Amino acid sequence: MTTPEDAERLDAADELAGFRDRFLPITDPGVVAYLDGNSLGRPLRATAARLQEVVADQWGARLIRSWEERWLTLPEEIGDELGRVALGAAPGQTIVADSTSVCLYKVLRAAVALRPGRDEIVIDTGNFPTDRFLAESVAAERGHTVRWIDADDVRAEDVAAVTGPRTAAVVLSHVDYRSAAIADLAGITRLVHDRGGLVVWDLCHSVGSVPVALDAADADFAVGCTYKFLNAGPGAPAFLYVNARHHEAFGQPITGWMGAADTFGMAEHYVPAPGIRRALSGTPPVLGMVGVQEGVALLAEAGIERVRAKAVALGRWVIDLADEWLVPLGFTVASPRDDARRGGHVTLRHPDAERLSRVLIENGVLIDFRRPDGIRVGLSPLTTGFAEVRAAMARIRELAA
């Protein structure tokens, strides 16, 4: 069931197909398929228009007055909408601020401080480098020890094996950046809480692709980027989530003026703002937040459940094509075959993946290589079609052969 007619049938039945017209067209005629939206999403037409409006009218005409008229409250306003649309978070717990790395540092430092007397941070060896590096940095600053989970697909039993009375915080990715395996967010959070620790979730590869229910899971902290499935643009600001029950004791370590109780009071000493605003540090990146706002608005219109359903269907389509065309050529499917456990991309392994990846990109199939042998096929439901995927997989088969 992988014929051109099947692809046409799937595209014709796609409820989200019309959203592809909401993005700027790919003008490079050599591109066969863009399958790297899980690293950098495509630009929205609305974002281009909004940026022009913000520069010309808000910045150009209203000048500095725009700070008090609309800009100062954007981090919370966009954060609340993001929480509602994609994170399962009630208002007042999500805010747009800084990069993912800075947000992760803030919440991890705060998390370990909330567990005095405990001196271990738990993280898996396969987590994204930033997460691992920061876990080691925070551990060094606090005199803590890092306990490692050595597993490619972290499950509750793996976490149980390394957590206990010394565990201050556990840092995990909800969706693995290599395999796309989905972790049991609610179950792992519950397990760590039963042992007295806190959990920091990295949502970079799930936000905008996989529904998240932070409040329902009683999650502690979460961070994530906005330039992947939210299509907010290169270097767009990240977000962080702090459960309301932690707000009063939440002490983030980068105490800049935007997180102070009286931003313009120029007080002699720092007093944190109430609620989630204390998570801010420096001046909000207004132009970058425009992309986040438009990406969240589009996701709200499309609906995260419909986006998830199409991501699952696209992933199944890639696996079916891989089994038929690529496995005989030495490829293996490295992502979960169980649809419920697979995020928004499929990773294919090949012994010569690094060289093959360069050849694919040179020939118009824009994918991502991840060491040592992974080729990631990114599936962005609002911009990716089934015929596009089939054409890309056919080109991969041709080049690999």
Automatic annotation (TrEMBL):
Keywords: Antibiotic biosynthesis, Hydrolase, Pyridine nucleotide biosynthesis, Pyridoxal phosphate
Cofactor(s) essential for the protein: pyridoxal 5'-phosphate
EC number: 3.7.1.3
UniProt pathway: Cofactor biosynthesis; NAD(+) biosynthesis; quinolinate from L-kynurenine: step 2/3; Amino-acid degradation; L-kynurenine degradation; L-alanine and anthranilate from L-kynurenine: step 1/1
GO molecular function, one term: kynureninase activity
Presence of keyword Transcription: no
Catalyzed chemical reaction(s): L-kynurenine + H2O = anthranilate + L-alanine + H(+); 3-hydroxy-L-kynurenine + H2O = 3-hydroxyanthranilate + L-alanine + H(+)
Enzyme class at the top of the EC tree: hydrolase
InterPro entries from the UniProt entry: Kynureninase, PyrdxlP-dep_Trfase, PyrdxlP-dep_Trfase_major, PyrdxlP-dep_Trfase_small
Gene3D superfamilies: Aspartate Aminotransferase, domain 1, Type I PLP-dependent aspartate aminotransferase-like (Major domain)
Signal peptide limits: none
Recorded family membership: Belongs to the kynureninase family.
Cited function: Catalyzes the cleavage of L-kynurenine (L-Kyn) and L-3-hydroxykynurenine (L-3OHKyn) into anthranilic acid (AA) and 3-hydroxyanthranilic acid (3-OHAA), respectively.
Subunit comment: Homodimer.
Protein name: Kynureninase
Naturally occurring in which organism (per UniProt): Amycolatopsis nalaikhensis
Source lineage: Bacteria, Bacillati, Actinomycetota, Actinomycetes, Pseudonocardiales
Record gene name: kynU
